[in-house]
Amino acid sequence: MTALLEARNLTTMLRGKHGVVTAVDNVSLRVDAGRSLALVGESGSGKSMTCNTLLGLLPSNGRVVQGEVFYKGRDLVRLSRAEMAKIRGREIGMILQDAMTSLNPLLTIGDQVAEIFRVHQGIRDKAELRRLSVDVLERVKIPAALERLDSYPFQFSGGMRQRVSIAINIALSPELLICDEPTTALDVTVQLQILKLLRELQQQRNMALIFVTHDLHLASQFCDDVAIMYGGRIVESGPIADVFARPAHPYTAGLLRAVPSLGRYEKRLEAIPGQQPGLAEWPAGCRFAPRCPLATQQCHAQYPDWFEWQNGARRSACWQTMQMWSQAASSCCDSAADSGGEPALAGVARVRREVA
């Protein structure tokens, strides 16, 4: 399957008062049409900066120093600002974390929805703009959409503001929608409503989705594939059900052990010891090595190669991949052999190093 969007070895640097730091480091990911990719990691791991890099929305002190972002065969990194402006909104939309800050408090909802039709389609007729705005608000299930056109963001609940943000971003039927923690600060019931709405819109339009989150449960319920980020790098990726069932990186395994479970109410949660290092504090070797229970001298000294299996569908950047995968797959090796298939461990291969 041809990727709708594919980033290759993407590296972004930020210049600050203490010098230059690497915020996104050698990130490679892909998302296919109609599929959803979860970008998972704790705060500060580089998830949002990766999405901003994909869309060319870096702050003035940031720049891409390496890599490509191919969207339908075009390298977005090489496009001019004017060319990127034509793609953002029309072909790729992005929903931000906090709809209250992403919406203009001084403009009515109707004006903000109509803006995307004015900018990208050149429509100036007020009656037509109102008709289109009502239509897109009804698609995201805003009740009494016509009456709410003249309301301001503060007159909407958090969930309704997020629906308005979604409406603005799907108005022109984009092929890719990037959702940067779209359910942040919403209660559980509203979270489920927003996720259900996004799923319905995706299925109706065969959209691709990149879903940024630190919530593994939401990711598992909503997405097809997953990329785990730590310290500005992707450390593991693959089909989400497979990755969560048989993690091949100690960080992924640690995240899963820290997820609350009703079936384990008598056990304490197993938190990952230590803290993620800051942008200017990354160690020379594996970023996770200072917190990893399996770390060796090699892990502290040298960043790991990628290991791939399942024809490249599964990837892990860990020197202990063979050990992790062996432990995770031991329970299914016998069943695979009994059915005439190859053991789950077969096919794990070290691939060319992609980092210096």
Automatic annotation (TrEMBL):
Domain named ABC transporter: residues: 5-256
Major place of residence: membrane
One GO MF term: ATP hydrolysis activity
GO CC terms: plasma membrane
Matches recorded under SUPFAM superfamilies: P-loop containing nucleoside triphosphate hydrolases
Location in the cell: Cell inner membrane
Membrane-spanning parts: none
Keywords: ATP-binding, Cell inner membrane, Cell membrane, Membrane, Nucleotide-binding, Transport
An annotated GO BP: peptide transport
Cross-referenced Gene3D superfamilies: P-loop containing nucleotide triphosphate hydrolases
Bilayer topology annotation: Peripheral membrane protein
InterPro entries: AAA+_ATPase, ABC_Ni/Peptide_Import, ABC_transporter-like_ATP-bd, ABC_transporter-like_CS, Oligopep_ABC_C, P-loop_NTPase
Family of the protein in this entry: Belongs to the ABC transporter superfamily.
PANTHER family with a match to the protein in the record: DIPEPTIDE TRANSPORT ATP-BINDING PROTEIN DPPD, OLIGOPEPTIDE TRANSPORT ATP-BINDING PROTEIN APPD
Record protein name field: Peptide/nickel transport system ATP-binding protein/oligopeptide transport system ATP-binding protein
Species whose genome carries this gene: Paraburkholderia susongensis
